[in-house]
Amino acid sequence: MNEVVVAESVGKTYGDTVALDGVDLTVAEGEVFGLIGPNGAGKTTLIRALTGTTPVTGEIRVFGSEPAAVDADRIGLLPQSFSPPARLTARELIDYYAGLYETARDTEAVLADVGLSEDADSWYETLSGGQQRRVCVGTALVNDPDLLFLDEPTTGIDPAGRRSLWELLESLAAGGTTVVLTSHSMAEVQRLSDRVGLLQDGQLVAVGTPSTLIADHGGTSRLVIGTETGHAAAEALGTAGFSATASQAEVVVDGVSPVDIGEAVDVLSAAGISYDSLTWTEPSLEDVYLQLTGESFEGAATPGASVVSEESTESPTPSVDSAATGGEK
Ligand code: ADP
């Protein structure tokens, strides 16, 4: 497989601050690489390094050349903060950015791609935050890049617009475009990325496909029981052989597969323990993030989660029905 991006021992300091500390990274042609990490971990600095907009130590090759020497027509970049002139319309802005390249895509096609055909004649400043961000994404697509860097592309975009941008990025990737993205949304990273790299304190501490990262660092599937009597519940479950830990108003039972839920519920019923909710979750990238950084990934969704409450009529297993009965106060 062709390697589009190769970084070796990349380092960057700002005074005493170490922004990048020995980063090794390769991104293959057609791959979507998601970069995650806490604020200040070095994500933006790494994107700047890979696009040749900040000098670094170490070695970086993009399409076999130094980043700054790569033909601009081949790279698209959407920075995290990007404020185009406010008194130009969406169409004028796409046209303007298209004019910066020797060959550019048709403006109407780019507007359609980012879902702005109908609002193309609105000034940038009158568009909603999400529409503005879509214009910005459009400016990164005008040159039909082979390699696309997107620093938080969907910030401020509503869920429907976000999903249509995901589909657009998926179709670009399917067509061979290589994408490096950062995101504030773990659901976005998990859905789009072929591989994910976790940056922490300037170091790439874990790299892999979402499923390998989850298998290596995500822990097991678990049942979370919302209950006022957490310690009694944990004791009853522990006696029955479950690995249960009580915290404030809940009990977390690790290593519970769906077929074990009924047994856990029976244990609670037999012990006369009432509860407010049962939530079964599969490990996700969110758990990987929590495990490796010690922080939760703010605003992230947990795609594997399903919630069953007493009011719920959609019980995933018959045994959860009996949970509802057993859980009544
Ligand atoms: P992230 O994008 O993961 O939030 P950044 O790459 O923006 O992280 O920042 C990494 C570290 O480098 C942080 O400690 C940040 O304060 C510092 N940093 C980034 N840019 C500059 C700069 N221009 N001047 C000084 N320090 C900077």
From TrEMBL:
The keyword Ribosomal protein is assigned to this record: no
Domain ABC transporter stretches? 5-226
- Per UniProt, which keywords does this protein have? ATP-binding, Nucleotide-binding, Transport
Query: What does the record give under GO molecular function?
Result: ATP binding; ATP hydrolysis activity
Q: Report biased composition (Low complexity) as residue ranges.
A: 306-320
Q: Region Disordered: which residues?
A: 300-329
Q: Does the keyword ATP-binding apply?
A: yes
Q: A Pfam family name for this chain? A: ABC_tran
Family, per the entry?
Belongs to the ABC transporter superfamily.
Q: What is this protein called?
A: ABC-2 type transport system ATP-binding protein
